[in-house]
Amino acid sequence: MILGKTLESWYATHPLIRDLVECQETSWFNPGTAPAADALQDVGLTADDVADASARLARFAPYIARVFPETAGSGGMIESDIRPLRALQQALCQQYGVELNGTMWLKTDSHLPISGSIKARGGIYEVLKHAEDVALAGGLLRAGDDYAGLDSEQARALFSGRKIAVGSTGNLGLSIGIMGSTLGFQVIVHMSADARQWKKDKLRSHGVTVVEHEHTSDYSVAVAEGRRQADADPTCHFIDDENSTNLFLGYAVAAERLKAQLASAGVVVDNEHPLFVYLPCGVGGGPGGVAFGLKLAFGDAVHCVFAEPTHSPCMLLGVYTGLHDEVSVQDFGIDNVTAADGLAVGRASGFVGKAMQRLLDGYYTVSDESLYRLLAVMEQSEGVCLEPSALAGVPGIMRVLGEQQGYRARAGLSAQSLAQATHLVWATGGSMVPPDEMKAYLAKGRALLET
Ligand SMILES: *Cc1c(COP(=O)(O)O)cnc(C)c1O
């Protein structure tokens, strides 16, 4: 029995669960979406909250520019470029024998400064928000101060009496560890046993305490353990990847910046020129926050689709069954083992799943083999090196254009509008992968392409 029903009766009421259980690539387009003007009310956060987060990042920009010189060129703003994917789009058409209308673009969060992944948005934002709270309460900052002053012995002395704890499969830990330790906090990162050695080494080199949970590859257990320890210590701020609205808002700021980037690249987004955005999903905070910002920025002209590994389809399972965080992939015997760092999550955020379900057009799964193949194709065609998880958004265009679930008609997507659509692949990580590991990824992908 699985949550009160046999597997056969789950298959009868929810036929796509069979694909999930068999770890077959699949797609689901939610028939229960609603116009943004209505569904944005579900979230419990507003455009003002995103503007507040954006203003906070602007206040910290002089400090960031000072302590991370690689951000000086952008004035301390942590942002990534967009770039067209003409060669990749052509390669996909050839390789899969399909015609792909519209224009593909890449959002290179893989190359965000400081921590080289999408976590440089939410993770760093929440650390800065906490630092501001502590500094204001401690009399170290007053409204209107130049935050560059936080690069001082006095500030580090104040922060060094405080701890920040987080549970992470890797990239969130890197972002929070590097930012937190730079400010002067004591940072404790709880990691599951499968976390990459180079990420642990890098964190330790920044003076971060890495707690390895050797007996579990389950990230949720590492998070729970981190939460338990932090709860017992009043000087410790726990960053809750499953429920934090601060993380979510840090991600959401991406959208207004993307809007400006698309405009300056001459890319039109409106109902006749729809924008599709494909977001790799782990627990859901990153893609959920970005999608929330996108719906605020573009309304119904943007269509957000989440991508998950075939072995960790937690958000698809949670939203499709309506059980959200009451169900895990392990409940259905799915092993949650994948090469896609950051996406190996068995139970989705209940907050994100519920808040965003009427705003997300669809969800699909991708096998590790597909990720490796696409990794090699991306490098061959565009010269861009990404980590496996960051490729999950690439097949999105084929899933949308090939779907047979009535989604395109339901969403009012005419052939004309699809011909002038933009398909943006959100590349979530990769630039910090050590060269040897990247070589191994590429070799694996190339070998698979030859089979
Ligand atoms: C964390 C992460 C994601 C997904 O973010 P969630 O908030 O966990 O859904 C995607 N890609 C990479 C590389 C990540 O590290």
UniProtKB/TrEMBL annotation:
GO terms for molecular function: D-serine ammonia-lyase activity; hydro-lyase activity; pyridoxal phosphate binding. Its cofactor is pyridoxal 5'-phosphate. It catalyses: D-serine = pyruvate + NH4(+). Keywords: Lyase, Pyridoxal phosphate. The keyword Lyase applies. Its EC number is 4.3.1.18. InterPro entries: D_Ser_am_lyase, Ser/Thr_Dehydratase, Ser/Thr_deHydtase_PyrdxlP-BS, TrpB-like_PALP, TrpB-like_PALP_sf. Belongs to the serine/threonine dehydratase family. DsdA subfamily. This is Probable D-serine dehydratase. It comes from Cupriavidus lacunae.
